[in-house]
Write a structure and sequence with these properties.
With 151 residues, the protein is mainly beta. Helices cover 7% and strands 45% of the residues. The protein has two helices and eleven strands; from the N terminus they run H-E-E-E-E-E-E-E-E-E-E-E-H. The radius of gyration is 14 Å and the shape is globular.
């Protein structure tokens, strides 16, 4: 949070790569891998495994869902790769090298903290798994780079 966050996080564009696994199914709440937010669900960028098992990458701005694709199915106890890029009107995601999801109409929220293994707005939405690596780039990588990073 604060300067520990703002010193490296770029508000207008960036890219994440998540590598990890989930051990158990969620019980009524999603398994959140990581997220950036301003203390609420209304302005956040996060990735999770939904209660139905789908891999979700979500961008929320002022309470509205700007992008929320289900981009694959996360399998319990299996190492998985997810990559995600954000920039105003230019969001993209890929899961395990699969089909690239893009959205060209997404507003990007301002964030003031990063949460690893839990939701920045609700600590009950935790990973229940293992993060082997989370990488961040302070720029929007190309779609080709994004897909290669998740393969």
């Amino acid at each position: 949070t604060g300067a520990n966050f703002s010193s490296w996080y770029r508000q207008d564009e960036g890219s994440f790569r998540f590598a990890g696994k989930i051990y158990n199914d969620p019980s009524g709440v999603p398994n959140v891998f990581f997220g950036v937010a301003v203390d609420s669900f209304d302005n956040t960028i996060y990735s999770s495994r939904s209660t139905s098992g789908g891999v979700l990458v979500s961008v929320r701005f002022a309470g509205s869902s700007e992008a929320s694709p289900i981009i694959g199915q996360f399998v319990k106890n299996k190492s998985e790769l997810l990559s995600f890029c954000y920039k105003s009107n230019d969001v993209a995601a890929s899961f395990n090298g699969g089909q690239l999801y893009t959205d060209i109409s997404a507003l990007i929220p301002t964030a003031n903290k990063l949460s690893l293994g839990s939701a920045p707005w609700d600590s009950s939405a935790y990973l229940n798994g293992h993060i082997s690596r989370l990488t961040y780039w302070p720029k929007r990588l190309t779609n080709t780079q994004l897909q290669e990073l998740s393969a």
